[in-house]
């Protein structure tokens, strides 16, 4: 057997994106029997893994495009508009009797997904993705309060700089303190108030 030398070739190949081809190359000369190459089931599983991962990555973009297309069709079919064509109410915000068509479409969506073999949870996730593609903002993504991004960043920089100022040890944070102070001043912070316990 090839022993340690083969093991090191295996480990070096494993850390590379070309792992399957390098593994086959490392094994090629080691397991020949009358011009027949014996390929480990592990190597073929890894090749299959690489191929299926590539197919998944390529398909993900298509799923997003399909969701966007369906969301656009729902927008065009159900958004309420004024006389000039401006949207007054998005389809997912419509209530009352006007919601009848949306409920029918949701039921048809659910029936088609169930027929294709999807569970209730998966159906709900995809419906949510369609709503978000149409502009729906989930509760977790809504801006809370009136704090703008600059005020929040200034508060976080204050916390970081106070932590650095109060640190008694030599740390890498001390090296970036000047850059953080510059950003703090640009956002309107007073550096004279930093580092007070």
Short description:
The protein has 197 residues and is mainly α. The chain has 7 helices and 4 strands; from the N terminus they run ααββαββαααα.
Descriptors:
61% helix; 197 residues; two-stranded antiparallel ribbon; 4 strands; 7 helices; mainly alpha
Structure report:
- It is a single chain.
- With 197 residues, this protein is mainly α.
- It has three domains: 4-39, no CATH class; 60-141, no CATH class; 149-193, no CATH class.
- The chain contains seven helices and four strands, in the order ααββαββαααα.
- It has helices spanning 4-14, 19-28, 41-78, 100-115, 120-133, 149-166, 173-186, and strands at 32-33, 36-37, 80-81, 87-89.
- Strands 1-2 form a two-stranded antiparallel sheet.
- α1 packs antiparallel against α2, α2 (19-28) runs antiparallel to α3 (41-78) and α6 (149-166) packs antiparallel against α7.
- It starts with a helix and ends in an 11-residue tail after the last helix.
- The model is unreliable at 13-19 (pLDDT under 50).
Poorly predicted runs of 5 or more residues: 13-19
The strand count comes to: 4
Tell me about the biggest sheet? 2 strands, antiparallel
Tell me, rounded to a whole number, the average pLDDT. 75
Shape: flat
Strand order of the largest sheet: 1-2
Distance between the termini: 67 Å
Number of helices: 7
- Overall radius of gyration: 29 Å
Order of helices and strands: HHEEHEEHHHH
Give the fraction of residues assigned to helices.
Answer: 55-70%
Strand percentage lies at under 5%
């Amino acid at each position: 057997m090839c022993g340690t030398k083969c093991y090191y070739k295996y480990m070096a190949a494993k850390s590379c994106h070309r792992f399957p081809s390098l593994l086959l190359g490392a094994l090629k000369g080691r397991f020949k029997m009358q011009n027949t190459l014996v390929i480990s089931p592990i190597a073929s599983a890894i090749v299959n893994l690489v191929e299926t991962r590539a197919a998944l990555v390529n398909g993900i973009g298509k799923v997003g495009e399909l969701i966007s297309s369906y969301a656009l069709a729902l927008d065009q079919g159900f958004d309420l508009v004024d006389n000039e064509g401006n949207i007054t109410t998005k389809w997912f915000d419509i209530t009352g009797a006007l919601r009848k068509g949306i409920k029918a479409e949701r039921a048809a969506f659910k029936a088609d997904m169930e027929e294709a073999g999807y569970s209730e949870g998966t159906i709900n996730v995809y419906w949510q993705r369609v709503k978000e593609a149409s502009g729906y903002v989930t509760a977790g993504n809504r801006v809370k309060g009136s704090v703008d991004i600059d005020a929040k960043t200034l508060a976080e920089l204050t916390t970081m700089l106070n932590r650095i100022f109060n640190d008694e040890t030599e740390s890498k944070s001390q090296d970036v303190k000047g850059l953080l102070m510059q950003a703090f001043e640009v956002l309107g912070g007073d550096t004279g108030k930093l580092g007070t316990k």
